Known about the structure:
By secondary structure, the chain is mostly helical. The protein is built from ten helices and no strands. Helices cover 73% and strands 0% of the residues.
Amino acid sequence: MSMNRKEEIVLITLELAAEKGLANVSMSMIADKIGIKKPSLYKHFASKEEIVEAMYEYLRRQAKEKANIKLIDYSTFFAGKTVYEILQSVVRGYIQMNHQEKMLNFYKVIYSERSLNPMAAKIVAEETDKMIIATKQLFFAMEVHKLLHFTNPDMSAVSFAMTIHGLMDYELDQSNGKCSYETDKNLLDDYLKWFCEENAV
Length: 201
């Protein structure tokens, strides 16, 4: 597959950021690594911030395709599945999407800089927003299909999305930190089962 120049810039920037940290990567460094002059780089992107925004969109789109995540026709998607299987399938798809190598490298860079870099913080917040919106749509559909019942669907969606995010981060921290202590390996699954019971129709 031939890669266009913008994709090449995005991937080289990710490589450099994973190696040196985003804050330490300059436009000159990116141009040098690609083998072009700095003014040529500015023809494609006005700033490093613009490159990182494009990187997020590009990697997310690629990861969604690889994880086979498409717009859901809920009636078809729900057919023949238990509530637990539906939630498990959605969460697995999201984990698959975010645990692809390039996406993981991107998040390592973004997460490590989000407390100091407003652009990194904005991307993390954007991703969380996307997950909350998708969860609200799912829960609304589950309520309509009488699969689950929520006293407050919007807050249930926020709570669910943030818990899944937190548990994903927790698992990553454990694996990156090579934690030796015993933890409940099925925490995510246990949470999904509990959630189904709590909100059963």
